[in-house]
Design goal:
The protein is an alpha/beta fold and 672 residues long. It is built from 24 helices and 20 strands. 40% of the residues lie in helices and 17% in strands. Pfam families: AAA_15 (PF13175), OLD-like_TOPRIM (PF20469).
């Protein structure tokens, strides 16, 4: 059973948002925009004892009830049977509500297909009111059986609804999702084990073998419960008590009799005829203390305590520990209880492999990159991806992963459809800013690419689109975290724009704008479509290659026309070799190096070029597309008072498009 969709109303910074979820869902955004709020909302939904504070209500207004609705799908056979009364079209919708009538705070509401008119009967305060509503509906022409008693009403209503599906619609079940919230919530917990790994958690507390700790609970469930039922240990306990009783017999301690005589003599000085009897009180015997577990890590044959481990190892251990606790609790609840007295029988745990029949898990992590070395971040990201694609199903069961991150290592272009961009905006008429979530689908990008390149739809499927995005890996992931993206062909282009930007007082990093190379112009389309579909402003720049060899002209023209069409250039204005600075894109007539020669002057450019080759000890071929050489050339020529007019105009146009979305006077500057 998995989460298909989450709808959140009035929880913390979220006023009203719907979030679609896949096997892996990634939340990205600046600090304080509400990424973790989604994970906390899930915790509020699954944690039966959760009680919201004033701060948990949107704008701290407790008159706006919190509603957290989850659409579940992907049911196992057992889950489908357990929830069959609430599953429609292979989906189950459950809402938890906080606020309003405090006596019902935290109730679970299931969605059912029923007659809306019957809600007045189901929600009646007492039998008299229910009967009046029942009679009223009967009088309106609804064929219901004669009223007998209130206990029979639900059966009558359900029978009518089953026989009149066309007259029914989806309605809430009046807070009767499997009865009390502890019952309905318990059924959800059994089917969906929710684990939240917060950004700050003390692993040493979890690993300390105490009653309330995670490892202590695991030891009680798996080991110590089995020890309590072990016949040899029980026999040893009896033998210890027998021997101790024999050793402490009064016959072995005459001092007991002597003390009894002394006390009797002393007492009779006050009351003649009254004596003292002194004997051992019958006790419960000796309870042997159970052994306590000590957790250590081992690496390279060296052992060390949890508290001395690196934070990254500790964080991974927390996930493993909490997951196994849920696994064991679930299996214990399924069959290790004695039906007569409710005590652990011990047989279920002792004989049962607790790794069998693994339950599904919803794993929510705040900032999984915390305390991880960059290479470990990438590795951890791959583990999470594999977890959510059943790569470790034999160990962890069926896992759905949701996490919020600030690290590009945890998201790449091919996973854009699993990425949710989170921002906080000022809602019109609202007393506080609200979090909003942006997402895009593979279908949207596939369709856009099909249209731009006139590709037959059967050749541009979602699978093919995702496969073509894999060539980028995490190289372009920085764009997901930016307020805007400038796409260029190669590393030398990036070096040129970064250097010239600084010379004219524009620092892209300060503006949270990423300049990203895609290696060649034929790769511009896919990242452009991805970022655009997520409403991240994008400004692409490419070489039109007007000076290319005759044999390459057809390929260059096709690429130039496709990119213009992708950018929305009208058919009549599409050029074979476009050039100039435009509102939404820019093109060099030939290539960027030729444009720099034109701007700086051929002689001056070549002189600076030769000096850079000597400085870095490079051949002409090695220096041709070297970003260090490009930076050195531009720096030297700007120091001489020269400027690159077209590139400066491109930067201004790109900044304006990203930050304002409107044209400037530099919007259409012809190349010189």
């Amino acid at each position: 059973m998995k989460i298909k969709q989450i709808k959140i109303l009035n929880f913390r910074s979220i006023k009203d948002q719907v979030i679609n979820c896949g096997d892996q869902t990634i939340f990205i955004g600046a600090n304080g925009v509400g990424k973790s709020t989604v994970l906390k909302a899930l915790q509020a939904f699954f944690e039966i004892s959760f009680r919201p504070a004033v701060e948990d209500f949107f704008a701290h207004n407790t008159e706006w009830p919190i509603e957290i609705t989850i659409v579940f799908n992907n049911f196992s056979e057992d889950e489908a049977e357990d929830f069959k009364s609430r599953i429609y079209n292979d989906e189950m919708v459950v809402t938890r509500v906080f606020g309003g009538d405090q006596s019902n705070n935290g109730n679970y509401y299931g969605m059912m297909k029923g007659n809306p008119a019957f809600q007045s009967i189901r929600n009646a305060a007492n039998a008299t009111e229910a009967k009046a509503k029942y009679t009223e509906i009967q009088g309106s022409g609804v064929d219901l059986p004669k009223w007998t008693k209130q206990g029979d009403v639900e059966e009558h209503l359900t029978f009518w609804e089953a026989g009149h599906p066309d007259d029914c619609e989806f309605i809430r079940d009046g807070g009767q999702f499997f009865g009390f919230k502890s019952v309905g919530g318990g059924k959800l917990q059994k089917a969906t084990n929710f684990i939240l790994i917060e950004a700050v958690r003390d692993v040493s507390e979890d690993a300390n073998d105490q009653k309330s700790s995670a490892i202590g609970q695991l030891m009680d469930l798996i080991v110590r419960s089995a020890m309590a039922q072990n016949e040899k240990i029980a026999a040893y306990q009896d033998e210890v008590n027998r021997q101790y009783s024999a050793l402490t017999s009064p016959e072995n301690f005459p001092q007991l009799g002597s003390l009894q005589t002394a006390l009797t003599t002393s007492l009779r000085t006050y009351y003649q005829g009254v004596g003292v009897i002194l004997d051992w009180r019958e006790g419960a015997g000796i309870n042997l203390p159970p052994p306590q577990a000590e957790i250590k890590f081992e690496e390279e044959k060296f052992q060390f305590p949890v508290a001395k481990a690196g934070n990254g190892i500790q964080r991974a251990f927390i996930i493993s520990l909490l997951h196994q606790l849920l696994v064991v609790k679930s299996n214990s609840d399924d069959g290790s209880k004695n039906s007569e007295n409710g005590a652990d029988s011990g047989e279920g745990i002792e004989e049962k492999n607790f790794m069998e029949n693994l339950p599904s898990v919803i794993l929510a992590i705040e900032e999984p990159e915390l305390y991880q070395h960059p290479t470990k971040q990438w590795h951890f990201a791959q583990v999470l991806k594999k977890l959510s694609t059943k790569g470790f199903q034999e160990i962890f069961g069926d896992v759905q992963v949701l996490f919020c991150t600030h690290s590009p290592s945890f998201v790449d272009l091919s996973e854009f459809h699993n990425t949710r961009i989170v921002a906080k905006v000022g809602g019109e008429g609202l007393p506080a800013k609200e979090s909003i979530f942006r997402e895009a689908s593979l279908q949207d990008v596939s369709y856009a690419l099909t249209h731009a390149w006139d590709i037959p739809e059967e050749n541009c499927t979602d699978k093919s689109t995702k496969a073509r995005l894999h060539i980028f890996g995490t190289e372009l992931s920085e764009g997901f975290f930016a307020d805007g993206v400038i796409l260029v062909e190669g590393a030398t282009d990036k070096a040129a724009f970064d250097t010239i930007g600084k010379r004219i007082g524009i620092n892209f990093a300060e503006r949270n704008i990423s300049v990203l190379p895609v290696n060649e112009k034929n790769n511009l389309d896919k990242p452009f479509m991805v970022f655009k579909s997520l409403d991240i402003p994008v400004y692409p720049i490419w070489d039109s290659d007007g000076n290319c060899a005759e044999g390459d002209r057809g390929k260059a023209i096709k690429a130039n026309k496709g990119l213009q069409k992708m950018l929305g250039v009208p058919d009549g204005e599409v050029a074979e070799f476009p050039e100039g600075v435009h509102e939404k894109y820019a093109c060099f007539a030939n290539e960027i190096s030729e444009q720099l020669k034109n701007d700086f002057g051929q002689e001056q450019f070549l002189e600076a070029y030769n000096e850079a080759m000597d400085e870095f000890s490079l051949t002409a071929k090695q220096a041709r597309k070297n970003p260090y050489v490009t930076t050195a050339i531009i720096t030297k020529l700007y120091d001489q008072g020269r400027t690159a007019g077209m590139l400066e105009a491109i930067i201004q146009a790109a900044i304006n498009h990203i930050e304002n979305g409107t044209p400037t006077s530099a919007a259409t500057v012809a190349a010189e």
